[in-house]
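Still learning. Any example?
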Amino acid sequence: MKTLRTCLLLLPAMLLAACDGGSNANDAPLFADSAVIATRATNYSSGAVSLVAASAPFTARNSVAASATSDLFVRSGGDHYFVVKRFDTNQVLRYAASNPATPVYTYSTQDATDGTAQSNPSDLLIVSDTKAYLLRYGSGKLWIVNPSATTEAAFKIGEIDLSAYDTFDGVPEMTAGIVRNGRLYVAMQRLESFASVKTGYIAVIDIATNTEIDTQPATDGLKGIELPVRDPVSLAGIPGSNNILVLADGGYSGAPDYAQLYEGGIVRIDTAANSATLVFDDGDATTHPFDFFADIATVTSDRAYFISSTGFGAAQTLYRFNPNTSAAPVAVPGFQAVAMGSLAVDPNGKLWVTRTSSTQPGVSILGFTSGAETVDASLIDTVLTPINIDFITVPVL
């Protein structure tokens, strides 16, 4: 990957002058380490990217890479980042950190040969400079892609068929993935007309051969790991092990009610045994202590966080928990019944929390000292409402 030697040499003298919190100047030098944040307008009419320095004073550059859609997310590629545009746009855009406002390329995630009307890309998992996995929520096939491809024809280099996980329409709604110990884990919701009527599944892919691993060789059924929950939405690795956590919101019933179903929770996947254990249950319609699970992140082997809410659009609460036990989670002071969205952990082990208030959108950054959270930044203004966060790490040679 190309480094930013020239930009970084200029950085110390120019950073504060060029990158004030409300700056939209796209010719300013970029930080060495930066959070990349997908953002949207409050009315969902458009989107953009915010770039925030990963160390104090957390200088922000907002409204970069403006977009006509708000249905997007970002992923890091080291010294560059990707904006993935989802339903009705179906594109992957690559941006260099040295020029974060102008895409290096814009490639489609559609394939005219497989009959997919809306590929609706849902995740991009980078393995190397020349290999990544693109999850396509609206298709039964995930793509293997070359993120450094210089032409659109060279972008897609393979595919993996997961349509067997959904006999309803052949579209298993692959929603999130994670790469651990030479394997790609893909969470699938398996909806039927938007209704969560079946348990979720995790497909396991050997990234060396791009083939699915049969995690249940003693059975004649599906190869993946069945989850004891419905509608998985987020995955997180547990530091110090190859195990992962799956967060599921339980989903909704079908038309016409689309009522919230309490079939979610947090599941721990033992990747050696290919087994799933329910850590926290979201309860039932009468008793639901954690309400509606929204997002999850792990910081250390014994400290993780999740966000829950009382329903779509309602206020959220941030909880701390030990991912290896079933001990009761602890609500984080100052982060109860407030508007939040997603979580991310930076290279320094700090927890970044998106704040989704329509009047004060931004990001909070939390540390941890003497058994309690510390607030490193109470609110970094992102101008637009933040969606998700990833981190650029630019090597300094």
The longest helix spans residues 5-18. The chain is about 5% helix and 45% strand. The mean pLDDT is 90. Residues 131 and 231 are 28 Å apart (CA to CA).
